[in-house]
Write a sequence for this structure.
């Protein structure tokens, strides 16, 4: 092996093998723990998927959306209604809901993403609010504040994931797949174009990148992740209500994103785990949970705007010069 | 027929008004294929406006821009760019969070293909393409003399090198015409000399260059043909020697900059 | 088919609540003009206005007028606290626009939760300032509170106008909105202006909250709808103009009242948010500006 190949191997080890091993270790720990820990880790996995999508739009592409909870709600309600009321296969319900959320994101994203600054912020925020209001008011479909319960667990055909632990294994698989996709896209022509837009829109434009189209694609990808996370939540918990996808979700997911490190592939996973473990150290302060999240978020925004991982990045982790991989023989 | 179908870029009677202000007044010139052409003029003469019109940043009030035989007036900037007319910015616009090499790799966008499916499933052609992007980026960084800095963060480069990186990134897009907007702005004499050398070698690679510049020394050193703009109008066009001797040009430069600096 | 009386009644109600939106909208503009920041926690001041006033009335048994007058400075202090603890540190570090927006949004959530913990999560209200209403005009009922809103609303606008034109601080604030760098060069303490704008804007929000509570209810979570509607009012008015925001608020209030008649009460927020998106997509510089522009051409 030549030396460039070795550095590319060490990059592989640092960027992929280590985090995957860490995630699997957490899961193994969870599988040997009580039901409560399983629930918390399960939530962490679901949120990590949601935040990985958010990271696509905000981290890689450098845009802002305060309404991604809208697409999580589409996924959650889509899955709940299709699998609960119409007895669809949960996996099929999940995929169809994702497709629906993607189409909605493309349609509403087209005019929305033309806006800039605080108009963009308010318009995306409004998308989340509209979805929230509809999920409360369209009681015929959503049961309003009462929410929908009795949503079947995830499964394929006849085989159903009966226990939380089985479900956790499935969630882990979804999460690893989601992060794999995020990593793949980040280090590709597509991902480079997104990150170029984050760096300088005029320069990206001048190199022939259709900025509006790429932003829209990033928005749709983020919506697909959000919808998937919403569906998984519905099947994991068996119950959803408007509050699940409300404003607190926006703040929580942003806290995760900034805590874990915006723009990094594993940041969302680390952030989700940290934020959901936080209440464990604050027992007795359950009611203060959202206050603490908000304060943590504000502190990060003030003191470490690139997220805590931004501090870690001071340690030289620049990607080693990957050698041109030998073109594989056909 | 004749003269204009030899020209790679043809600026025809371009006029630009902002309210009552006329920034460009019926400006015309042709840039032949393979040329190293410069547009000069004192500060506020309307060079940057003209530059923005050619690159599609905004459309002119009147007139046409013809590139490689097609009218490109009013096309959005990314569409102009994807035809092979690549610009740089007066204030360097790097992708700060990317490495030097990745910056150049983004430049390859125009000459590569593939979206989400190619990124996910990396078929053989996509892998070959990535290897080619890698090779091309390194080659271009070597070309502008930044080979050793390939894996640095782009914003850690000194300003003069950031300018060179921008040129390398633009070259990665395989431009038919490279538009340089005041590339010497903010550079010291030494850096300007290095830049002049790179511009000449870029042109020698067969890339047509249109240079819009305030710095006379750079222009006189590298340009083969020069158009001079003052108060929005073209007042002269010719070889560097002709321009140096042109009475209107001397008047414009002595009248303009000297009093402005005083 | 809604009859004429219903229609007229909804217009009357719409004007009332619309004035409230207008006051909130002016609050947005005051901060925006001073700093270029859009405070997404603006609605929180309306909520605090109602909740604090209610607490002073019910827990301390203060008379209405005293409670109302005390509430305004208390909420203005909350505005100062947000400025000092959240906005200023980010402002000083040159934080990105969306980061500041996010921080104000987080602040709103925190304040809402703290309100639940201290004042409870139940909706509450208090009587109208003048009892014995409503005034009957044929079949149309006009609540006395509406007159209070009209009166206090106009008073606030006049006071604001006097403040911005007759006082040094007001003129300095206006100078900041025209050009912050130039204002700083002229020796105007720009950062103190930021403080002033938060206090002023919080006070305005509190007045809106105190006035509107008898007509509806107040609860920890009414901040977001009032904030969003105030923002819409400001946007309709072209963001930055106080008169525009007030007119925009009334227009929005009336539209919303009509939407309630036509679609039912449940979807009034959806209707308002749709108006927001339509205005943003079609008239990003404000409806009034768009109308003036089309006249000019």
């Amino acid at each position: 092996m030549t030396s460039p190949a070795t550095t590319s191997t060490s990059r592989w080890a640092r960027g992929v093998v280590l985090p995957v091993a860490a995630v699997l270790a957490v899961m193994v720990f969870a599988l040997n723990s009580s039901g409560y820990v399983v629930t918390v880790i399960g939530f962490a996995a679901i949120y990590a998927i949601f935040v990985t999508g958010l990271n696509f739009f905000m981290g890689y592409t450098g845009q802002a959306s305060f309404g991604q909870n809208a697409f999580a709600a589409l996924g959650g309600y889509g899955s709940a209604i299709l699998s609960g009321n119409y007895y669809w296969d949960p996996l099929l319900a999940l995929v169809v809901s994702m497709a629906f959320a993607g189409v909605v994101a493309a349609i509403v994203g087209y005019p929305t993403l033309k806006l800039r600054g605080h108009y963009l912020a308010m318009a995306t925020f409004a998308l989340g609010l509209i979805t929230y209001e509809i999920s409360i008011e369209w009681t015929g479909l959503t049961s309003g504040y009462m929410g929908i319960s009795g949503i079947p667990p995830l499964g394929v055909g006849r085989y159903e994931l009966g226990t939380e632990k089985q479900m956790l294994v499935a969630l882990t698989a979804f999460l690893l797949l989601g992060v794999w996709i995020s990593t793949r896209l980040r280090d590709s022509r597509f991902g480079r174009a997104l990150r170029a837009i984050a760096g300088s829109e005029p320069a990206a434009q001048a190199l022939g990148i259709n900025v509006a189209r790429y932003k829209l694609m990033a928005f749709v990808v983020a919506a697909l992740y959000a919808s998937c996370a919403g569906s998984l939540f519905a099947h994991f918990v068996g119950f959803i209500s408007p509050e699940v996808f409300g404003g607190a979700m926006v703040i929580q997911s942003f806290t995760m994103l900034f805590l874990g490190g915006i723009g990094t592939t594993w940041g969302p996973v680390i952030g989700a785990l940290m934020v959901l473990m936080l209440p464990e150290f604050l027992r007795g302060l359950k009611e203060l949970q959202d206050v603490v999240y908000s304060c943590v978020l504000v502190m990060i925004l003030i003191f470490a705007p690139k997220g805590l991982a931004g501090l870690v990045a001071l340690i030289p982790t620049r990607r080693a010069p990957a050698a041109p991989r030998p073109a594989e023989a056909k | 027929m004749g003269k204009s179908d030899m020209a790679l870029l043809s600026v025809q009677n371009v006029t630009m008004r902002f309210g009552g202000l006329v920034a460009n007044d019926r400006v015309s010139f042709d840039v032949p294929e393979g040329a190293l052409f410069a547009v000069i003029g004192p500060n506020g003469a309307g060079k940057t406006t003209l530059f923005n019109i050619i690159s599609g940043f905004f459309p002119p009030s009147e007139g046409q821009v013809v590139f490689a035989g097609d009218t490109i007036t009013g096309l959005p900037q990314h569409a102009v760019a994807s035809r092979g007319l690549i610009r740089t910015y007066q204030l360097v616009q790097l992708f700060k969070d990317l490495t030097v090499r990745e910056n150049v790799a983004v430049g390859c966008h125009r000459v590569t293909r593939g979206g989400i499916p190619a990124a996910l499933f990396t078929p053989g052609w996509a892998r070959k393409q990535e290897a080619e992007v890698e090779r091309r980026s390194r080659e271009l960084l070597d070309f502008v003399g930044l080979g050793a800095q390939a894996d640095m963060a782009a914003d850690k480069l000194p300003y003069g090198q950031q300018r060179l990186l921008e040129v390398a990134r633009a070259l990665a897009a395989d431009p038919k015409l490279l538009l340089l907007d005041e590339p010497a702005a903010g550079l010291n004499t030494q850096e300007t000399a290095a830049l002049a050398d790179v511009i000449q070698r870029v042109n020698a690679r067969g890339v047509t260059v249109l240079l819009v510049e305030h710095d006379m020394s750079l222009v006189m050193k590298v340009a083969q043909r020069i158009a001079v703009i003052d108060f929005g109008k073209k007042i002269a066009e010719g070889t560097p020697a002709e321009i140096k001797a042109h009475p209107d040009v001397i008047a414009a430069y002595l009248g303009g900059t000297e009093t402005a600096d005083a | 088919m809604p009859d004429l009386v219903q229609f007229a009644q909804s217009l009357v109600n719409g004007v009332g609540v619309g004035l409230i939106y207008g006051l909130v909208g002016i609050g947005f503009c005051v901060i925006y003009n001073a700093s270029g920041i859009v405070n997404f926690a603006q609605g929180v001041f309306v909520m605090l206005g109602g909740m604090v006033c209610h607490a002073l009335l019910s827990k301390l048994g203060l008379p209405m007028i005293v409670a109302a007058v005390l509430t305004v400075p208390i909420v203005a202090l909350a505005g100062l606290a947000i400025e000092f603890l959240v906005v200023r540190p980010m402002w000083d570090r040159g934080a990105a626009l969306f980061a500041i927006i996010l921080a104000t949004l987080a602040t709103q959530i925190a304040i809402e939760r703290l309100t639940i913990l201290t004042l409870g999560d139940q909706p509450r209200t208090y009587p109208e300032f003048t009892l014995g209403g409503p005034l009957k005009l044929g079949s149309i009922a006009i609540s006395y509170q509406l007159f209070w809103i009209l009166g206090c609303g106009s008073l606030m606008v006049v006071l604001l106008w006097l403040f911005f034109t007759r006082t040094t601080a007001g003129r300095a604030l206006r100078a900041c909105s025209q050009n912050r760098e130039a204002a700083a060069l002229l020796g105007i303490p720009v950062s103190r202006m930021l403080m002033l704008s938060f206090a002023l804007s919080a006070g305005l929000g509190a007045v809106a909250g105190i006035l509107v509570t008898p007509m509806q209810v107040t609860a920890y979570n009414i901040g977001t709808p009032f904030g969003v509607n105030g923002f819409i009012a400001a946007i309709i008015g072209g963001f930055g103009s106080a008169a525009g925001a007030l007119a925009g608020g009334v227009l929005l209030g009336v539209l919303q009242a009509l939407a309630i008649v036509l679609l039912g009460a449940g979807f009034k927020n959806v209707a308002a948010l749709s108006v927001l998106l339509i205005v943003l997509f079609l008239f990003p510089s404000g409806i009034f500006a768009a109308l003036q522009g089309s006249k000019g051409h």
